[in-house]
Specification:
Distance between the termini: 65 Å
Structural class: mainly alpha
Strand content: under 5%
Number of strands: 3
Radius of gyration: 32 Å
Number of helices: 8
Shape: elongated
Largest sheet: 3 strands, antiparallel
Oligomer: single chain
Amino acid sequence: MSVPPDSRYAKWKLVFKEYAVLVLSTSWFYLALGIGFFVLDALTGRYLSFPILFVLPVASAALYCSSRVSYALAILLPLGRFVILLVNSKNQQIGYQFANAPVRMAVLLLIAYLVSRTARQTKELKARVESMVMICAWSRTVKYEGEWISFEQYLLRRFKISTSHGISPAEAKRLFGDMANSENPAPDAQTLSSTQHDP
């Protein structure tokens, strides 16, 4: 049986997405990315005064991986750049490079902090939105896992809570009038069916 081209595309898209999530959640990917940009910076060291490409691994690690990896990259990349320039320079720019290294670290640490804070707040907001329950205003059914089910079924499926039914005193008084005062016990099923059928 031949698989339609759209479903093959959807299958490969899903596989790629799962692989991308796996890769983007590992710290080794961001360390390798940081090393790659560090090597690129080392090759063009004299021509770029601020290694703007260092922002990419720092911000990406803060967004997709962890703030620790991001902070480590924010410190190690400018420090490595300083060591490379220190080894390659001819003593005329050591003071300049020594002053720039902490500034670069501070800027990258600030970016790492802001991006990781935004990522954390986004995750918290997403968890809040996902925990909200959508209830139909007309049928009072609940949307759960793409299906509209009764509230009782929702409690059972999501929280494993069984329910039973009763009647509140206010509704009993509204429906049954004087029969439902607080001294009398709640009407049983036979009494309810006989009162509902009487004209």
